[in-house]
Amino acid sequence: QVQLVESGGGLVQPGGSLRLSCAASRFTFTYYGMNWYRQAPGKERTWVAYISSSGQTTSYAHSVKGRFTISKDNPKNTLYLQMNSLKPEDTAVYYCNLHRITGEDYWGKGTLVNVSS
Asked: What's the sign of the alpha-carbon dihedral 112, 115, 116, 117?
């Protein structure tokens, strides 16, 4: 069974930075593109960023473009999200996601990012 474990969240002041990690196991990480999603309190989960299997192609939600960077280290089976210039509206639980073309979705338990002064 696919396992995804997020880490790196915490409390940060507006304008600060955090790097989230997602340790992946029990599937061939190199073969798959990956996503980050987030869910703010009282809101639906929304897509944040995508990276292709090789890491050469990325895309971002408009709200984070230019501030967040998604990357993956295939030998380490780890997905990252570097978040800079954080804003209070970035406060959310962040999830990494594997979406297979067969339609299956796999999620970690998430890591909480709280942007507050």
From this structure: positive
